[in-house]
Amino acid sequence: MGCGGCRVRLNFGKVLSKVSVFLTMVLIFTYFFYCLTGLCDSAPRTLYSQQGADGGYDNVDDRSQVLVDLRIPVSNTYGTKKLPNAIIIGVKKGGTRALLEFLRIHPDVRAFGAEPHFFDRFYDRGLEWYRNLMPRTLDGQITMEKTPSYFVTKEAPSRLCTMNCHTKLIVVVRDPVTRAVSDYTQTLTKNPGLPSFQSFALKNSSTGPVDSTWSAVRIGLYAKHLENWLQYFPLSHFLFVSGERLVSDPAGEMGRVQDFLGLKRVISDKHFYFNQTKGFPCLKKPEGSSRPRCLGKSKGRPHPQIPSEVLQRLRDFYRPFNQRFYQMSGQDFGWD
């Protein structure tokens, strides 16, 4: 009996050993298959965003944070990673996230979802690092990214031209007064104890001139920023998208964008509906989805009440800059 029990235990041990070896081989085979098919490219990459001197307000958009985990999904193993053909370079709080999400409907557009900040923060990491962030594309598809702070970064035009002076550049612009209030509102949401809008916008509180060194005001000096870019890129390389029309007529504005990028007009009225609650267009429910796609809760926030005299002083301040921008861009955006 004792020896019989030993033999049973011995045989059972051999079975366990064989099962363990089999499972190990399955795991090894699965791992090699995973890597050989290219899915290892989907490993997470980490970028560290930089805060401005005012504690994180300067050049930080809704999706930025001190540590941003950029996960790069690779939906297939075909195609190659290429440097962008087109970039949305600005402006913060102008509607750049909406534009990118609308463009991603197009089958010939592959866009990096996060903001790489290569030409303003991570330029020292090199073009190969930048290229590896991009999604894979097939022949006939274009690669895109968006980082709104490029438009207001002095070094960005020369750096981007060093990569490719033929890159197509898209700038989403919005009434600079409304944009500044939206910018402030974003920061106020994160820091409820923030001083009043006018304490930042005007020197000496409400009695002094407009403070153009405050980032929320400075970003709206579109003509000044464009002058910097025109030293490296001809005007024909730019498309200026109206942030207001992107809300009131998204299909019409997207038609202009598709034409500029040399794409077939695929995105049309059938893709949009107006969300009355958010006051913003959303994408209709795609096939296979249970609900429509709207931008996050941070989009369409109500703005705080700003004294009308403060807003008027800002309008007066921006007027000559707006007129200059209309002349340079060849478009009258009707902000005055």
UniProtKB/TrEMBL annotation:
Membrane topology, from the record: Single-pass type II membrane protein
Residues binding 3'-phosphoadenylyl sulfate: 93-97, 174, 182, 299-303
Top-level lineage group: Eukaryota
Segments forming domain Sulfotransferase: 85-323
Keywords: Disulfide bond, Glycoprotein, Golgi apparatus, Membrane, Signal-anchor, Transferase, Transmembrane, Transmembrane helix
Transmembrane segments: 15-34
Family in the record: Belongs to the sulfotransferase 1 family.
Protein name from the UniProt record: Sulfotransferase
The EC number(s) this enzyme carries: 2.8.2.-
Chain segments carrying region Disordered: 286-305
Catalytic residues (UniProt): 93
EC category name: transferase
GO cellular component: Golgi membrane
A molecular function GO annotation: [heparan sulfate]-glucosamine 3-sulfotransferase activity
Covalent S-S links between cysteines: 282-294
Localization per Swiss-Prot or TrEMBL: Endomembrane system; Golgi apparatus membrane
Pfam families noted in UniProt: Sulfotransfer_1
